[in-house]
Amino acid sequence: MIRLTLIEARELAESILLHNGFNLAHAQAVAATVIAGERDGCASHGLYRILGCVNSLRAGKVSADAEPQVIDQAPSIVRVDAAGGFSQLAFQAGLGLLAEKTRANGIAALAINRCVHFSALWVEIEQLTAVGLVALACNPSHAWVAPTGGRVPVFGTNPIAFGWPRAGQDPFVFDFATSAIARGDIELHRRAGKAIPEGWGVDAEGRPSTDANVVLDSGAMLTFGGHKGSALAAMVELIAGPLIGDLTSAESLAYDEGSKSSPYHGELIIALDPRRFLGAATEEHLSRAEVLFQGIEGQGARLPSQRRYAARARSMVEGVQIPEALYNDLKALLA
Ligand code: NDP
Ligand code: PYC
Over the stretch 81-122, which tens digit does the pLDDT of each residue have? Predict the structure, then answer.
């Protein structure tokens, strides 16, 4: 393993992106996301993703210098046209107006269109909880996941993330793929030459497989929780696809033309302002939420994101460690 400080890790990511042609704004926004992933112990959405960014650019499937356009679509709807660039800059562009509309109306949505997307969603959710808002985000990806009862991929790994702000504490955040596991995790198993657990995927005939190559290349991934994950994956396809005038995972994969680039589609983010819902009773009701969290933690169960927050605290002191093979692959992109 190679140990890097967070500053070294960020410089490495940024310099690779700049060297390969991304402009400074995109390089900084993308590097910030992958370093957050690495810092928080989310290797599947950490520095490893820089390889995919460069591959997507070389394949002509992402713009290196797209300028997101913010559109004031309706009293409660912000739209950002990412113009074929990575989603990070588009999210940053729309965040201010989304927060403003949420405060004015109690609820508002941000629809990001035409973005190339690979990031973990908690990075965005935490920016909304940081300003006191409750938030929900989701997006399609590429059609890699079979519906329950089938074996042909139609869904993306379609993450859903939720955040709830907590006074003086880290927010309550969960963020998971509606597939049994993020595809990035299976890709990391392949890189490490490791078998994957049963339940993550099937071969082309629909038989359970623990071979990452089979599941990634010719079989299909599975949803989490059987028919429940399958229905949630379909919901994500609908509300972050046709509802916002953007591509489904199947359409994103067709657009990819076998280049193995990052998915190209839209993203839906919904924000809610507790103060607008509750007025003078806000603090009273938010404190009742704390009783719920105590009920979970009080019996030894953990809240989602606690592992991540602990990893964050550790990385701030110790830096991060990445496999030497990944470090070498990253350095090669500077050649
Ligand atoms: P995991 O299954 O690893 O974890 C999902 C969530 O569950 C996390 O919030 C995690 O918190 C929490 N969790 C895990 N174990 C427990 C536990 N024992 N008790 C309580 N909470 C727990 O995630 P996935 O593989 O499904 O997804 C990983 C990432 O991939 C996500 O960030 C997602 O946004 C990203 N992704 C992005 C896609 C895209 O299109 N951009 C597509 C698919 C996934 P903790 O982190 O603290 O362990
Ligand atoms: O890990 O499934 C995944 C993924 C898809 C797009 C970005 N991450």
Answer: 999 999 999 999 999 999 999 999 999 999 999 999 999 999
Q: Are 191 and 123 in contact (CB under 8 A)?
A: no
In residues, how long is the chain? 335
pTM score, two decimals? 0.97
Helix ranges (H only) for the chain are 6-19, 24-39, 49-58, 87-105, 122-129, 183-192, 212-217, 227-239, 249-256, 274-278, 282-297, 306-318, 324-332
**Number of domains making up the chain:** 2
- Closest C-alpha to ligand 1, atom 15: 304
Q: Tell me: the pLDDT tens digits for 237-270?
A: 999 999 999 999 999 999 999 999 999 999 999 9
Q: What is the CATH number of the domain that holds 39?
A: 1.10.1530.10
Tokens of 236: 């994500």
107 and 52 part of one domain: no
Residue 211 falls in the annotated catalytic set: no
Domain that holds residue 112: 69-179+223-301
Return the ligand number nearest the Cα of 221. Answer: 2
**Ligand 2 neighbourhood includes 141 CB (under 6 angstroms):** yes
Q: H or E stretch including 115?
A: strand 107-116
Q: Under a CB-based contact definition with an 8 Å cutoff, are residues 196 and 220 in contact?
A: no
Asked whether residue 233 is domain-assigned, the answer is yes
Locus of tokens 């629909």: 206
In the structure encoding, which two tokens stand for residue 222, read together? 């599975």
* Tokens 């009742």 sit on residue: 288
**Which residues are registered as beta bridge partners of 69?**
81
Q: At what angle do helices 6-19 and 24-39 cross, to 10 degrees?
A: 140
